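User: Some background: our group keeps a shared notebook of sequences we're curious about, and every so often someone picks one and asks for a predicted structure to add to the entry. Today it's my turn. The entry only has the sequence so far, pasted here. Could you supply the structure so I can complete it?
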Amino acid sequence: MVGVEQSPLADEIKSAIFFFLIAIVTSSIAYVKGFYKLEKSEKINLPSSYALSVFFIYAFFYIGLGSIIGKYLKGYITKENSVGISVFFTVSISLVTLLVLYVFCLKKRKEITFPIIKTFEENSKSPKYDMGFGIFSWLVVFPLVTFFSSIFSIFIYAVFRVQKIPDQVAIYFLKATMNNPIYFILAMITIVILAPILEEFFFRGIVQNFFKKFLNRWISIIFTSLVFAFVHFSYAQKLANITIVGSIFIFSLFLGFIYEKQKSLISPIFLHATFNAINVLNLLFIKGI
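Assistant: Of course. Here's the predicted structure to add to the notebook entry:
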């Protein structure tokens, strides 16, 4: 008897039901354990000049530099060397951005930067605890994000009647490196280590704290998450933008919440890194590349 192949819509409906049930269990346990409890909000001293300086560094080095270099190298890029050049410049630009931020933030303005990274109080947890909290938060966050991802995908399949949703740009980037172990390792370093550090410092450390100067923390988390989500928008992703931007928004809400809860960037960085790492493993060993 020949089996009937399941439609993508049916698969997404099953995924949504499964992860909804898992999310109920994990979130209920987390609620009982006090995971969702927040202490009184505190505003960090974040001068506008400092925030604008970091914004310029991030925008120029992390976002703009690649486009500038890409235009100059356009005539030298071929089908054979495009992956290697892309990986090399992605890693290089991330490292250069990290170095510039290190010099400006930790060498020149450490009195402002240290409280952004971690607020030390009498009842503060250790950095090691913050790492563990970030990693184990994945157990709560992943089912909820995956549930909403399936909901967004169901919407795309039901409304637009497509058979396949395009991959995220980062997934295309990772897939392109699979034939070369060195490229793949460099891509993993970027996705699992460099991107979480750079993105959490900028979005949670700078943008969220900047919004908190004028708004309450919940509105600040929402606005920061909107910015973070739409930064991941790409025309190349087509309809997948609905799922990708929507899912990243949900994920960002948790990153912002955990930053407020722990008063430490260490926790969202490790949650972000864990989330990315497990997604990569999922692609490798479950969904296949």
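Suggested note for the entry: The mean pLDDT is 89. Residues 1-31+128-289 form one domain.
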